[in-house]
# Entry
Amino acid sequence: MASLNVGNLGEYLREQRRTAQLSLRQLADAAGVSNPYLSQIERGLRKPSAEVLQQVAKALRISAETLYVRAGILDEKERDELETRAVILADPSINERQKQVLLQIYDSFRKENAAEVAAAAAVAAVAADDVEPDVDPESPAVAPDAETPLN
# Structure
């Protein structure tokens, strides 16, 4: 898990608040936090909890996962996975059974790809260990079981 980057988070929150045309006080009221606390978050002086970020995201009508990534609480890859799952679960054109099947397929593809990456890394590690040492081209070649040069 990454460390909190509250300065970046604060700037992003301020930008989102202004885009939504909300005053600091309006957003604080909508998120259920105090005006001074929200101001401190925006200025990078406070590290909000995941729960506070979720409330602020809901008030701004943006993804809480995006705020988690900005705050360093969630990794970018984890966010992508969560957003993919959320999109599948929110799709009104498919039923619950179909959603569960899609999620199972998605999980199996992710596991398969992770296994392939791990296998490729293992092969690369073994190949790196099997590299022969550099041979000095000036030294005479000697047969493995003889003491005379092959040249």
User: Anything to note?
Assistant: DSSP finds seven helices and no strands in the chain. Residues 28 and 34 are 6 Å apart (CA to CA). The radius of gyration is 27 Å.
